[in-house]
Amino acid sequence: LGDGVGAEVDPFDGHTIVPNPVVLDDDGETVVVIVTNPWPAGKIAIEKVELGNSPPNGTYTFTIAGPETLTVKVNAGETWTSDWLELGTYTITEHDAPAGHTITPNPVVLDDDGETVLVTVTNMTAVASILPETGGADRTGALVAASILLAAGVALVAVAHRRRATHTD
Question: Residues with Cβ < 8 Å from 85, sequence gap 6 or more?
């Protein structure tokens, strides 16, 4: 029994809770609380990822166009989430997007009050065909090994030549 103050988690702008606070006494009555949101809405979340050999870095700019239009900046490796948007169909466009990027889903349809739709924006970076490094730029070890193998080869040829010479005499 007593006073209770209610609060809506993640409310729409302009929402109301009536009555608030609610007063409960010992007469056993039921108190009906009405929460009113001004309009149905949803949210769009954008996640920027990069596949290949380059991690995403920097800040990317997007335009979200539909019943409402806004331009947003998304930091690489983070997920940006909009404020409440009017329900409807939105098209996502990345400014200065590289060739081969994808935005999924696109367009985005907000058709359920309170939903959040996650949009994944993926850049594909070329994976270069580079041979793996074999120990850095210092080639001294490789030159020493090559010299030893060359000397061993010359010695084997000399031994083989002597054996042939002694067998033919």
Answer: 41, 42, 43, 44, 64, 66, 67, 68, 110
